[in-house]
Design a protein that fits this description.
Length: about 260
Amino acid sequence: MIKIVAAHIEEVRGIRKLDIRLDQATFAISGPNGSGKSGVIDAIEFALTGQIGRLTGPGTKDLSVSEHGPHVDKVKFPDAAFVKLEVYFPSLKKAASITRQVSAPKKPVITPKDPAIKAAFDEIASHPEITLSRREILRLILVEPTKRSDEIQTILKLDAVGQTRGALNTAHNRLQTALKATEGQALSSRDTLARHLNIGEFRPEEILTSVNARRQTLNLPEIAKLAADTKLDQGLSEPGKDPDFNKQAVLRDLNAV
């Protein structure tokens, strides 16, 4: 949870300059049409998330914050449009401030530079559904009952969650297919190696016994332990070193065969 202590708004939406002192209290904004009530909510939402919900979604053609966030007289000077919030985090028992300019919505200035405070602001920014516009509320009231659940998903930005979930499911299915193919290839390679080594069970002890017998034929030192990175042909192709040919050992092997 976050509580707003004070807000300073300059050149945002229909507000030229405004200071509000809230002192962590619950508040309501009232006034005649066009007095800037929605502008205050837009400014607070922008300071916390870098977005203005009323400029996005169906019917808005996804208006740009950089073009439609500043006051109409400051459209060409977005640097002049900014919001500063002084807030308090009860769970952290810490006060902080965040300042966000319309010209750089993704680069807020947060003080103090406390990792816990930054993480808390990041959490809020990742949930832009913290505010509802009058348009969204009216649409929810007027929508057909059968479509109300879809409207709630849109309001809570759950449609984006659904898209992410679909992408993750697709990636999961692809990885599962690749895993099955890899497992099949590994099993086939394992059976081929077992037949080549003439072993009954695919165990490290049997593999080492069979491999070391062949290495002894080539006059190569035995491998003491089988690990994932063990090279069974280690020493066979070392540059400048030709293994001595053990004729007697080979003759014994041939006789045994």
